[in-house]
Amino acid sequence: MKSGAAAIRAAIIDLDGTMLHTVPDFELALNGMRAEFGLAPITQQIIEPMVGKGSEKLIRDVLARDFDTDRIDAVFDAAMAAYQRHYLAINGERATLYPHVIEGLQALKDLGLRLACVTNKPVAFTQPLLAKKGLTPYFELVYGGDSFPRKKPDPMPLLQVCRDFDVEPARVVAIGDSSNDAEAARAAGCFVLSVPYGYNHGKPVQSINSDGIVGSLLEAAELISAHNKANS
Fold it and tell me: In the UniProt entry, which residues are flagged as the active site (predicted)?
């Protein structure tokens, strides 16, 4: 992070691939949907690179393994409804916290930062999942991929958080696992930190245009603390 820059006052944190490993949940829900169309199950290794761009893109990518574009268009609404039904039934059942997430969130709060969770996951999935994993109390704001007309990598959700918190984007850091998070943060004028253990659409984290790679949310808090001390 840059010396001479403004101190950080808020953090916007991604969910899938950043706080929670959710691909096992996606596997259950997507294969439940596929079974209703007579399609064979697919593996977590196939699913993982598809995660992060919203449910609509996910369903289309999964169906594209077996159907052409016309067939996808014809069954899309039914497939989405089936996926949502299956996901709501198992939401959080197999998802697991990454190491040091709770400690990292607490450390960020202890620094006085205001926290928002911004994800491309539908908010109807996001809120119960955060609650089930004990993460809800850490966040003042939670926005999903359907909270606004545009989702990450568009900066719209991040800019809304800045307005809600009344904090300049230059005093906000986005923390995520993918290029979506970095592109949204850059366009909004925020700092961005990347974690190396997430999904990033199957691409190496080093390909992300970020201000640093941190091994955990706790390490992110330590870096932000050092930055704020140097720029207070």
Answer: 14
Structure-token pair, residue 199: 């999904």
Nearest to 44 by CA among 95, 85, 80: 95
pLDDT mean over 126-147: 97
Q: Which CATH superfamily is domain 10-21+96-230 in?
A: HAD superfamily/HAD-like (3.40.50.1000)
Instruction: Categorize the per-residue pLDDT at 52 as very low, low, confident or very high, splitting at 50, 70 and 90.
Output: confident
Largest CA distance in the chain: 60
70 a catalytic residue = no
Q: Where are the alpha helices (DSSP H) in the chain?
A: 23-36, 44-47, 55-63, 69-90, 101-110, 123-132, 156-165, 179-188, 217-230
* 14 assigned to a ligand binding site: yes
Domain residue ranges of the chain, discontinuous segments joined by +: 10-21+96-230, 23-90
- Measured on CA atoms in the order 110, 114, 117, 123, is the torsion positive or negative? positive
pLDDT at 3 over 70: no
Give me the catalytic one of 14, 25, 181, 211. 14
Q: Which two tokens stand for residue 149?
A: 């007309």
16 annotated as ligand-binding = yes
d(C-alpha 77, C-alpha 82), whole Å: 9
Answer whether CATH 3.40.50 is correct for domain 23-90: no
Dihedral sign of CA atoms 100, 106, 108, 114 in order: positive
What's the CA gap between 111 and 214, in Å, rounded?
Answer: 17
Mean pLDDT of all residues in 29-42: 97
142's tokens:
């939670």
